[in-house]
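Note on ligand handling. Small-molecule inputs were canonicalized before submission; formal charges were left as drawn, and no protonation-state enumeration was performed. Where a ligand contained multiple stereocentres, the stereochemistry in the source SMILES was retained. For magnesium ion, this procedure yielded the string shown in the input block below.
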Amino acid sequence: MRELNLLDALWEIITPVDTPGSLGPGDDAAVVNLGSSANTVISVDQTVSGVHADPRFVTPNDFGWRAVTTALSDLAAMGSTPEAVLIGLIFPADTKADDLKALATGADAAAVEAGARIFGGDVSTGPVLTASVTVVGSLRDGRPPVTRSAAEPGDLVGVTGMLGGSAAGLELLRANPSDPDGLRYRRPSARVNEGIALASAGVTSMIDISDGIATDAGHLGRASGARLDVDLMRLPIDPICHRAAESTGADPHVLAATGGEDFELLFTAPAAQVDAIEAAADLSITWVGEVVAGEGGTSLSEAGLSGWQH
Ligand SMILES: [Mg+2]
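Structure output:
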């Protein structure tokens, strides 16, 4: 399929841009209308088949979903509302057109689920299936972004959802490629609504857990110049970690601390904000530790735990 024909076929799959003042695919560049009182948040994230997604278990549709979700998770961590997605896609020349359409379907579904649209993209053949996904988000009414660098000693450390499900799901897929719990690995969720709710409820710092909480808590602690004392035994362990641990002999707590790609949010907040945060809509929150003065980092890495390194 020639590039222009392919792009046309893929654009037919993508949900149209319908925001007044915005311009989607078809011109030399897109226009993203964020309104006059919004700040812009931008991030780019690459998903490479065989590096970030195991091609034995991740279907083309999953790959598209995953690549967009991974990028959107970084917007969630800033408390930003996703608006636009752009995808640079490289695929081996022998890739079937139906697989590319399935990938576009998965990518579109992830964008629409987060309230965003795919505004543009580019395709090329190349050695390895790779999606380079740029995401554009907004911060409405001049609200500041939530950064990694403003945790204060005395803050509590919280986490959304449950940890270890993606790593455990991959282990279960290795044992049985059709294990239904493998969905936690194949199709993770970005905590977009949670990120916005946490930002509005007054968290002081935030990061998405893409490389495992042991690693990402270290990033946040170093950026803030403070130490995140996190209690391994208080981590919210995804129940499927216990299933995976039975077959591999791994400790479920270690799986939850070091497993990457859960895309839950790790954040810090003053004790006075705990009630507001717990009252924020639809949030499943676990308090796992506190911020203390000291060298920037986390007690988890001092315990010899570390997460995924790309
Ligand atoms: Mg991140």
